[in-house]
UniProtKB/TrEMBL annotation:
Residues 34-53, 353-382 are annotated as: Disordered. The lineage of its organism: Bacteria, Bacillati, Actinomycetota, Actinomycetes, Pseudonocardiales. It comes from the Bacteria. It comes from Actinophytocola oryzae. It holds the Pfam family CoA_transf_3. PANTHER family: SUCCINATE--HYDROXYMETHYLGLUTARATE COA-TRANSFERASE (PTHR48207:SF3). InterPro entries: CoA-transferase_III_domain, CoA-Trfase_fam_III, CoA-Trfase_III_dom3_sf, CoA-Trfase_III_dom_1_sf. SUPFAM superfamilies: CoA-transferase family III (CaiB/BaiF) (SSF89796). This is Crotonobetainyl-CoA:carnitine CoA-transferase CaiB-like acyl-CoA transferase. Keywords: Transferase. The keyword S-adenosyl-L-methionine does not apply. Residues 362-382 have a biased composition (Basic and acidic residues). One of its GO terms (molecular function) is CoA-transferase activity.
Length: 797
């Protein structure tokens, strides 16, 4: 028998429905928590859910439910039965946390609303997941995954989709999965802080953070949007002889290497005034022709040799056979129903995650409902400091995935030391398009500023022995080390986990490789889009008659968020045992988890989920419809998102658009009938919207109770009254770039608020003297390091 799991003895009641709450409690159950799912007599709606519409036997459960509910217990509570409610309340008195969302008569019973639960049981962490949050003017407005993506700016966030077609949302219910991961992390943070509270989590705010790339900060600091026109990424997903392959260029060097690879060195012109994407667009026909003449394997072999990011474009039927995932055993067999499912999104060494266990049948544990257990302590700690105050983190990360994880820690109070070097500053300092002629141009990147508030910057070139000595001192000074280099980088300088543990035995080291610390893709370059390609997230995004489109966003922040969750489990393990841990948080395995429905549906039902443009598995009609006004750039690219999720919403839509013929048509009274007539409904709704502004459409439909949204340009997020009311943005000044609005956290704690951004992103090497002095270096030693270029405060080229 192995060591106990980090959350052994931690008890949770799951009062949620839908993916977000189920995934949050799955992550807690994987960590060893005892999760009891309280269900109404008809059961959680996920028990009868299949994204493909595959029939669920009356005595069975949907495969997705079986995946998400593994190792949980199920009790049935009739909300009309006062005795059953009293037994549930007794259960709540003896647990540590509740995860709640709307969606069932049980969860929406007045005695089980989040504020009421916390009033009766102030020791509890009550994590509430709602579309907009529990407060604010939109708190009770209807919404779906699709309309939330539109409000977040995520549908057009990074220019997704060809300009001659409607933009496309990210396929699958990714916002639900992201919100669930945030909910698990927030619950663990609250648990670590040792006091009861309400955690108010907004799915909209989670999507803003994960589907857009600090667009408000970018716009306010530079006076222009990150991107003003939509276009396909080139080469992106391309058609080879035998299938689809993805190739991407995120840097000028990668573009130069691509030109050399395809035999067109004349495309390389460092003085070319066109932007990288414009250069690629001009070359697109020849690039696509080059790929079409080769197999997927041939393209990938060449691209890997040239160190150009590349990946297979996986889908439900292929992903489990992918060479990397097969090597690492990423997928496993569901212990109850036998289909293929992803393993946990991170790996802990030593392995203290719970062994897979079957999902419960409805009400399987109802006989135990009246039994309570004594709680350990009263959870009434008086320390009101920031939740992670006292934690010191060495942040050896760059770009988006790694810095997003350590930024979350910094906003929650950890002291985070961001390690760079003058020869290799964090890459986000270089991607703003700020001319090198501007004073301190490397300090003006809104992306770097958005990702690194509250951190300290230390520059160390650890390729030298003296720099390596300094790095060893930093490791000894920090309880946590986070890095997202390719594995070979730290291995080459002799700083793998065993070496780091030799420096500090109780260290927690979080490694964030793209594909894992071993396997055939181990050393491949991993940018967000590559992770999306290999995991299946790309496959579901785009119009069905075209190649899929890379989301180009969530692969990074999703990885960072899961890394934090793994770290929080490791911190709890260290609190209980005094032992350190290696957290291996591979980006691809985090992405595979939020794309889990594809492999599950294929394995369980033999159905391949495919992209359907802006339609979806839940609502019908659901689509984007062009409105009458020009967009802010003078084009014809203004849209609204409409998603009818229930028959009641359909009746409301019919009345709002004055279509009594629809209301009276029995063929349209069910979602199946509306799905069959989707093309005709799209045409009619498109005509209705085309004569109205986006505001007019939203006013008419939202007032009627229909989920609707304007497709927001992401740099306009501060204009949403819901985000303003909840204080989602804070103004932060910067000594070089100036003041701007910065996004914060997607959850609020009820027992007090704090400023998320307490200091601006650091200047390069700003804290060298402060931190190195704390390590015991003298002023003369620090000056010598500076003179020899080991440390510094400006790029060395």
């Amino acid at each position: 028998m192995g060591p106990p799991s980090p959350l052994t003895g931690y008890a949770v009641v799951d009062l949620s429905s839908g993916i977000a709450g189920a995934y949050a409690t799955k992550l807690l159950a994987d960590g060893g928590a005892g999760v009891t799912k309280a269900e109404p007599p008809e059961g959680d709606p996920l028990r009868t859910w299949s994204a493909s519409g595959a029939p669920i036997p009356p005595d069975g459960d949907g495969a997705l439910f079986s995946f998400l509910a593994g190792a949980k217990r199920s009790v049935v509570v009739d909300p009309d039965d006062q005795e059953a409610l009293a037994r549930l309340d007794a259960l709540l008195a003896g647990v540590d946390a509740v995860v709640w969302s709307r969606g069932t008569p049980l969860a929406e019973h007045p005695s089980l609303l989040p504020e009421e639960i916390l009033r009766r049981h102030p020791h509890l962490t009550v994590t509430a997941i709602t579309p907009f949050g529990l407060t604010g003017p939109w708190r009770d407005r209807p919404a779906t995954e699709f309309t939330l993506q539109a409000w977040s700016g995520g549908i057009v966030g990074l220019g997704r989709g060809a300009p001659d077609r409607a933009p496309v949302h990210v396929g699958g219910q990714v916002g639900e999965w992201l919100a669930g991961t945030y909910a698990a992390a927030a619950t663990l943070v609250s648990q670590a802080a040792g006091r009861g509270r309400l955690v108010d989590l907004s799915v909209l705010e989670a999507q803003v953070l994960c589907l857009t790339y600090y667009p408000v900060t970018f716009f306010e600091l530079l006076g222009r949007p990150f991107r003003s026109v939509r276009s396909l990424f080139v080469p992106g997903v391309s058609t080879a002889k035998d299938g689809l392959v993805a190739i991407g260029c995120a840097t000028a060097q990668q573009w130069f290497d691509l030109c050399a690879m395809v035999g067109h060195p004349e495309w390389i012109d460092p003085d070319q005034p066109l932007a990288l994407m414009e250069l690629a667009a001009k070359a697109a026909p020849e690039l696509y022709a080059w790929v079409a003449e080769r197999t997927v394997a041939e393209v990938r072999e060449l691209a890997t040799a040239f160190r150009i990011p590349n990946a297979p474009v996986n889908q439900g039927s292929t992903i489990a056979d992918d060479a990397q995932f097969r090597f690492r055993g990423t997928f496993r067999t569901n212990p109850r129903d036998g289909f293929t499912e992803p393993g946990p999104p991170y790996r802990l060494h030593p392995d203290v995650l719970r062994e897979p266990a079957p999902a419960p049948r409805l009400g399987e544990h109802s006989a135990d409902l009246g039994k309570t257990r004594p709680r350990d302590g009263d959870g009434a700690a008086e320390d009101a400091r920031l939740p992670l105050a006292g934690l010191r983190v060495l942040d050896m990360t760059a770009f988006w995935a790694g810095p997003s994880s350590t930024h979350l820690l910094a906003m929650l109070g950890a002291e985070v030391i961001h390690l760079e070097s003058t020869g290799r500053p964090d890459g986000t300092r270089l991607i703003a398009g700020v001319p090198a002629t501007e004073d301190q141009w490397w300090e003006r990147s809104p992306i770097f500023c958005g990702l690194n508030t509250n951190k300290k910057s230390v520059t160390v070139d650890f390729r030298s022995e003296r720099g390596l000595d300094v790095l060893r001192g930093l490791i000894a000074d920090c309880g946590v080390v986070v890095e997202n280099f390719t594995p070979r980088v730290l291995d080459q300088v002799g700083l793998d986990y065993e070496a780091v543990r030799a420096i500090r035995p109780d260290v927690i080291m979080v490694r964030m490789p793209g594909f894992g610390l071993d396997g055939p893709y181990r050393d491949n370059a991993a940018f967000a889009y590559v992770i999306e390609d290999v995991s299946g997230l790309t496959w579901l995004t785009g119009h069905p008659d075209q190649n899929p489109v890379e989301p180009y966003s969530l692969g990074d922040p999703n990885a960072g968020l899961h890394a934090v969750t793994g770290l929080l489990l490791a911190l709890e393990h260290r609190r209980r045992t005094g032992e350190g841990m290696l957290v291996e948080a591979a980006m691809a395995e985090a992405a595979v988890n939020i794309a889990a429905e594809q492999v599950i549906e294929h394995s369980a039902y033999g159905v391949e989920l495919n992209r359907v443009g802006n339609r979806g598995p839940v609502s019908a009609p659901q689509n984007l419809y062009r409105t009458s006004e020009p967009d802010e750039f003078g084009g014809n690219d203004s849209w609204v998102a409409i998603a009818v999720a229930t028959d009641e919403q359909w009746a409301a839509l019919c009345a709002a658009v004055d279509r009594p013929d629809w209301a009276e048509d029995p063929g349209l009274s069910t979602v199946a009938g509306r799905r069959a007539a989707h093309d005709a409904l799209d045409e009619a709704l498109g005509r209705w919207c085309s004569t109205r502004t986006g505001d007019e459409v939203v006013t008419a439909l939202w007032a009627a109770g229909v989920p609707v949204a304007k497709v927001l340009q992401p740099h306009r997020q501060t204009e949403l009254p819901q985000l303003r009311e909840r204080g989602f943005f804070e103004t932060v000044g910067h000594p070089v770039g100036g003041a701007a609005s910065y996004s914060t956290l997607p959850f609020r704690f009820s027992d007090g608020t704090w400023q998320a951004h307490r200091s601006p992103a650091p200047l390069l090497g700003e804290h060298n003297e402060e931190v190195l002095t704390r390590l015991g270096l003298s002023a003369d030693e620090i000056a010598a390091l500076r003179a020899d270029g080991v440390i510094g405060d400006r790029p060395s080229w």
